[in-house]
Design goal:
CATH superfamily: Alpha/Beta hydrolase fold, catalytic domain
EC number: 3.4.16.-
Protein name: Carboxypeptidase
Structural class: alpha/beta
Strand content: 15-25%
CATH topology: Rossmann fold
Radius of gyration: 21 Å
Number of helices: 18
GO biological process, one term: proteolysis
CATH architecture: 3-Layer(aba) Sandwich
Distance between the termini: 33 Å
Bound molecules: 2-acetamido-2-deoxy-beta-D-glucopyranose
Helix content: 25-40%
Keywords: Carboxypeptidase, Glycoprotein, Hydrolase, Protease, Secreted, Signal
Low-confidence stretches: 1-28, 282-298, 307-314
CATH class: Alpha Beta
Number of strands: 15
Family: Belongs to the peptidase S10 family.
Mean pLDDT: 88
Length: 463
């Protein structure tokens, strides 16, 4: 019932659609469309022959013109690998509408324009026509994303006025840092017309080794596993460390899967996205195979669709994206299922999944790029304990001072309870977000919104 009503709303919002066969660049064809008032546009870029990447741009209705502060654009990068930013980030986290197609009060559009991309190819509405075309590494994904940015930004002077902030979640953090480096290179060589504002790494999988070592001790400290569980967990973590240093990355991914099972078995199925909760939103998510490959898109969405987050709603993201939204967008090929190639995306990256990207963060810091790290207090999969451990491994010259500095508490909107802590030194900033699990903007929308306003130097200061 709810769902039917919503479908009507969508088609009313978009009475007219302009299909623009645009962009005949060197790479291949691109196709784009927009709604009547051009507040939204979307399209495909053929980033390599037969590899099609989908993007969706929202122009903010809250835009403030300030000659001293350009209006920012946020590029949201989802994790997985294989989780859809166009679906999850957009409809479940920060976009203008929720999965019931009702306005989201805390949408990040209040502070910036939003660009969602189904990255890498094969994710969400993006697709490949040949299975050999899935990317195998973060760097390959970054190359495709840079091609996409060139297609979108180079021909639009108004977009070029806005600095681009790359904000990532989970595995998306590995794409974010490789993309930032690749984009900077393209900017320096004149191939890409864009201003990079900075990079923000939310609960990001930057150093798999540090995360797997954090799981056991953290869960032991909060009584979720016992000493026996801790011992088992640490011994597999040690094996993973050895595999990583021997360059056996696929074996390390296998062991990561084993470790997740051990943690589940010894904790009576703790939820990896919030250690205060039990997993088991869906009994299927507890089977071994679901805990590995399926972790990408499916567990993500199930978790976010649990009643905890959307009371009274049973809208299923798959049905929404393959139904009402696909219909609205018009340009999704009939035979392309949203999420249909997602497991293949994960599998193709099996050998890169456990590779750390700490060096890339160091490179960005050395180049003077603003880097923000933010982490939800209750996350397990990318636990704050693991994030702090990789930050301490940075070679960045400011690290010593940064570590010694005191944090400042953050409150939100007259609420007197502490919502977060932050500190920054030179171009590194860290936010500890209290009461949030893996999905920070969902769990703490108010503080997350204030945080992105600050990161992006948004001229929209007060809500
Ligand atoms: C959401 O809307 C309500 C009512 O307008 C407002 O009081 C509240 O502060 C809003 N929350 C955010 C995060 O903007
Ligand atoms: C390019 O710029 C125009 C206005 O300057 C804008 O209306 C349009 O939506 C932009 N294109 C994209 C992809 O956002
Ligand atoms: C980078 O961060 C500093 C403060 O830490 C800020 O003054 C500067 O404007 C930021 N640059 C951008 C492009 O956001």
């Amino acid at each position: 019932m709810e769902m039917k009503k919503s479908i009507v709303v969508v088609s009313l919002i978009v009475p007219l659609l302009f299909l623009v066969p645009l962009f005949n660049g060197g790479i291949g064809t691109a196709i784009a469309a927009r709604n009547q008032d051009a507040s939204e546009s979307w399209g495909y870029v053929e980033v390599r022959p037969k590899a099609h990447m989908f993007w969706w741009y929202y122009r903010s209705p809250y835009r403030v013109e300030d000659p001293n502060k350009p209006w920012p654009i946020i590029l949201w990068l989802q994790g997985g690998p294989g989780a859809s930013g166009v679906g999850i980030g957009n409809f479940q986290e920060v976009g203008p509408l929720d999965t019931n197609l009702k306005p989201r009060n805390s949408t990040w559009l209040r502070k910036a324009d939003l660009l969602f991309v189904d990255n890498p190819v094969g994710t969400g509405y993006s697709f490949v026509e040949d299975n050999k075309l899935f990317v195998k590494t973060d760097v390959e994904a970054a190359t495709d994303l840079t091609t996409l940015l060139i297609e979108i930004f180079n021909r639009n002077q108004s977009l070029q006025q806005s600095p681009l902030y790359i904000v990532a979640e989970s595995y998306g953090g590995k794409y974010a840092v490789t993309l930032a480096l690749s984009a900077l290179k393209a900017i320096e060589s004149g191939k890409l017309k864009l201003k990079l504002g900075g990079v923000a790494l939310g609960d990001s999988w930057i150093s798999p080794e540090d995360f797997v070592f954090s799981w056991g001790p953290l869960l032991k400290d909060v009584s979720r596993i016992d000493g026996n569980g801790l011992q088992k967990s640490n011994s597999v973590a040690l094996k993973i460390k050895q595999q990583i240093s021997a360059g056996q990355y696929e074996a390390a991914t296998n062991s990561w899967r084993d470790l997740e099972n051990i943690i589940s078995d010894n904790s009576n199925s703790v939820d990896f996205y919030n250690f205060m909760l039990d997993s088991g939103m869906d009994p299927l998510s507890l089977t071994a195979s679901e805990l590995s490959q399926g972790i990408s898109m499916k567990r993500y969405s199930r978790y976010l669709q649990s009643s905890k987050f959307t009371p009274g709603s049973d809208v299923d993201l798959d049905s929404l994206m393959n139904g009402a939204v696909k219909k609205k967008l018009k340009i999704i090929p009939q035979n392309v299922q949203w999420g249909g190639q997602s497991d293949s995306v994960f599998n193709a990256m099996y050998g890169d999944f456990m590779k750390p990207r700490i060096d890339e963060v160091d490179e960005l810091l050395a180049k003077g790029v603003n880097v923000t790290v933010y982490n939800g207090q209750l996350d397990l999969i990318c636990a704050t304990k693991g994030t702090e451990a990789w930050v301490e491994k940075l070679k960045w010259e400011g690290l010593k001072t940064f570590l010694k500095m005191e944090r400042s508490p953050i409150y939100c909107k007259g609420d007197k309870s502490t919502k977060a802590f932050t500190k920054s030194y030179k171009n590194l900033r860290f936010y500890w977000i209290l009461g949030a699990g893996h999905f920070v903007p969902v769990d703490q929308p108010c503080v997350a919104l204030d945080m992105v306003a600050s990161i992006t130097q948004s001229p929209a200061v007060s809500k």
